[in-house]
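User: Here's a structure from my thesis project, written as structure tokens. My advisor, Dr. K., wants to see whether a designed sequence matches the one we expressed. Can you design one independently, without my sequence as a hint?
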């Protein structure tokens, strides 16, 4: 480590004499540099922790010492026999009162000798730390060659920097800690909570957090759009050499996680094949392929959820450890098959949709043999997804009745075209016709609701028939008009 004030005073060749009482200041504070200046206020040219060397008595001793203390100067040396013999009593008293160590420098000791001693110690410390960084990096690189490279690298890093290291996976779950048992439950919960927004952002990012076990630096791993996890490293007191080692480990850990993507991709293709076998009706093949690798398929009745969005890959990674059901990526859709008991408003699908900003729809309960029908129901429900209800259920769509299916952009566009002659001739005709049809086409009832004579109503309906080019006396024509009016409501 760099020189300390006590080491500086202990050098016999320098002949320095401490003038302030023991306990004044911290003699073990590292001294990064020694500087001489006769300015009335040298603090703009000093850094905290430095030692200042002077030969003249300041004009205002107390104010001068106060400025040095406020700036964080570690010690003050007074050179004697240059301007005056001995150190001024006022300076000794001010330093003692302000808590600034003061030592006397004899005439035979040049200031440059003090600066050289400090500089030599700084250089020796830098060399020692750089040598350590090289050794630590080599040990970590060798650890990366072991059978479980990620675990070995994190364990070696924790050993080298003597601080805990943790990995939070892409699914937001604490994956591993080195050394084992180094973190309390509270510290683990804090790390997971702080890593969550970094993972949700799906961008490369860094951060820091304070826990019961101290401060931690957080760094995402993986590429933007598909983060592989967050590395949490104890950061209390890490010097530049240790930071350099940590930077190398971030790259190694990211590489180790990326190497697992080939396995992940193979599992994803297997899931897609199982899903397509299920939809095609080959359940026996799907089960024989899925069970040894992916586990048993969910028990019927099941609900099928279809999810779409820009973060399907990240959502699939998250589902790996957050669902008891089966999921698969099929083109630009993520399909989730869950037992009815595991689905619902607080189930996996709505949680995934909220976490990764996805939209989707869920089918009604179905047997595994009826997955094509369930898939079609989920697609119908998905078309009605909104920011407020990102994953509607087909149950709700069915309960709303057939007319609710008219609330689509396609139906609205057709209806607006069909009703355009009415809007162009008399915008009030659409409301009149809607009231008439809501009154079951009974002129007397509709006329009373509209506050007009029934003959006037008949004339207006006849005008609408002329504009639309259709006879509204029959049920089919009235039903078609009613559907168009509902679609534009």
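Assistant: Designed independently from the structure alone:
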């Amino acid at each position: 480590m760099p020189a300390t004030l006590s080491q500086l005073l202990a050098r016999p060749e320098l002949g320095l004499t401490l003038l302030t009482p023991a306990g004044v200041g911290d003699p073990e504070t590292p001294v990064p540099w020694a500087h001489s200046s006769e300015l009335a206020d040298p603090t703009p040219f000093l850094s905290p922790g430095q030692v200042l060397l002077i030969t003249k008595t300041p004009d205002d001793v107390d104010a001068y010492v106060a400025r040095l203390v406020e700036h964080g100067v570690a010690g003050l040396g007074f050179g004697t026999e240059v301007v005056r013999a001995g150190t001024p009593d006022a300076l000794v008293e001010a330093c003692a009162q302000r808590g600034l160590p003061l030592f006397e420098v004899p005439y035979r000791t040049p200031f440059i000798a003090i600066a050289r001693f400090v500089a030599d110690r700084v250089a020796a410390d830098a060399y020692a730390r750089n040598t350590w960084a090289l050794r630590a990096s080599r040990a970590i690189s060798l650890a990366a060659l072991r059978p479980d490279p990620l675990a070995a690298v994190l364990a070696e890093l924790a050993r080298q920097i003597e601080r805990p290291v943790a990995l939070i996976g892409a699914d937001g779950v604490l994956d591993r800690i080195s050394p084992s048992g180094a973190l309390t439950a509270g510290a683990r919960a804090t790390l997971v909570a702080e890593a969550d927004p970094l993972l949700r952002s799906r961008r490369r990012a860094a951060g820091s957090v304070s826990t019961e076990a101290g401060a931690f630096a957080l760094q995402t791993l993986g590429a933007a759009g598909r983060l592989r996890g967050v590395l949490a490293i104890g950061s209390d007191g890490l010097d530049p050499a240790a930071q350099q080692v940590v930077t190398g480990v971030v790259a190694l850990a990211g590489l180790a996680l990326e190497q697992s993507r080939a396995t992940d991709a193979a599992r994803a293709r297997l899931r897609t094949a199982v899903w397509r076998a299920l939809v095609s009706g080959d359940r026996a093949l799907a089960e024989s392929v899925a069970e040894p690798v992916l586990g048993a398929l969910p028990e019927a009745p099941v609900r099928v959820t279809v999810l779409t969005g820009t973060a399907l890959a990240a959502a699939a990674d998250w589902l790996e450890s957050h669902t008891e059901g089966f999921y698969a990526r099929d083109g630009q859709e993520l399909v989730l098959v869950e037992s009815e008991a595991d689905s619902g408003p607080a189930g996996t699908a709505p949680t995934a949709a909220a976490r990764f900003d996805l939209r989707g729809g869920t089918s009604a309960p179905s047997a595994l043999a009826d997955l094509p029908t369930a898939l079609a129901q989920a697609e119908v429900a998905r078309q009605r997804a909104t920011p407020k209800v990102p994953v509607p259920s087909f149950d709700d769509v069915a309960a709303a009745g057939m007319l609710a299916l008219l609330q689509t952009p396609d139906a609205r566009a057709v209806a607006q075209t069909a009703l355009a002659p009415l809007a162009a001739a008399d915008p009030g005709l659409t409301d009149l016709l809607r009231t008439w049809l809501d009154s079951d086409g009974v002129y007397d009832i509709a006329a009373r609701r509209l506050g007009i004579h029934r003959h006037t109503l008949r004339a207006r309906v006849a005008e609408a028939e002329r504009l639309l080019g259709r006879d509204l006396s029959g049920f089919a024509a009235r039903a078609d008009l009613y559907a168009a009016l509902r679609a534009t409501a």
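When you compare it with your expressed construct, this may help: The longest helix spans residues 111-143.
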